[in-house]
């Protein structure tokens, strides 16, 4: 887990850097970004504040911080795996789509003929009575 810290408060910035010294990374290479202001569009962002809606509520301990970041990292990894599996499934489907289409076309033709035959039998039976 690689973490970048981007805080407006210099005290918060330094505290987080001391807590996360083993996990620190640049903003470009990080998995998670910690900020002390709300971030709307960044999935990697973790918001720290005394506000109840924050991802991590102040005050917090080092262990609480690490646990919260690990949970965030795990949830991001599981989302990435789900997205990758969906993409792979679509790639497999697209790879075999032309073959499946031919099979599907033949199946539709046979069902249509069968349906036509059944309708004709029903009409004949109706008029023969």
Note down, in words, how this protein is organized.
There is one protein chain. The protein is an alpha/beta fold and about 130 residues long. The chain has one domain (about 5-129): Rossmann fold, CATH 3.40.50. The protein is about 60% helix and about 10% strand. The protein is built from two helices and four strands; from the N terminus they run βαβββα. It has helices at about 10-20, 60-129, and strands at about 5, 30-35, 45-50, 55. Strands 1-2-3-4 form a four-stranded parallel sheet. Strand 1 (about 5), helix 1 (about 10-20) and strand 2 form a beta-alpha-beta unit. The N and C termini lie far apart (about 80 Å). The model has no long low-confidence stretch (mean pLDDT about 85).
Topology:
Elements: E1 3-6, H1 10-19, E2 32-35, E3 45-49, E4 56-57, H2 62-128
Parallel strand pairs: 1-2, 2-3, 3-4
Which descriptors apply to this entry?
129 residues, 12% strand
């Amino acid at each position: 887990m690689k973490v970048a810290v981007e805080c407006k408060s210099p005290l918060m910035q330094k505290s987080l850097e001391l807590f996360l010294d083993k996990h620190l990374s640049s903003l470009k290479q990080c998995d998670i970004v910690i900020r002390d202001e709300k971030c709307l569009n960044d999935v990697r962002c973790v918001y720290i504040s005394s506000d109840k809606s924050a991802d991590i509520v102040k005050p917090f301990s080092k262990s609480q911080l690490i646990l919260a970041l690990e949970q965030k990292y795990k949830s991001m990894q599981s989302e990435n795996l789900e997205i990758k599996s969906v993409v792979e499934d679509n790639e497999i489907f697209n790879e075999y789509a032309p073959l499946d289409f031919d099979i599907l076309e033949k199946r539709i033709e046979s069902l249509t003929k069968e349906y036509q035959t059944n309708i004709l039998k029903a009409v004949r039976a109706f008029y023969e009575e």
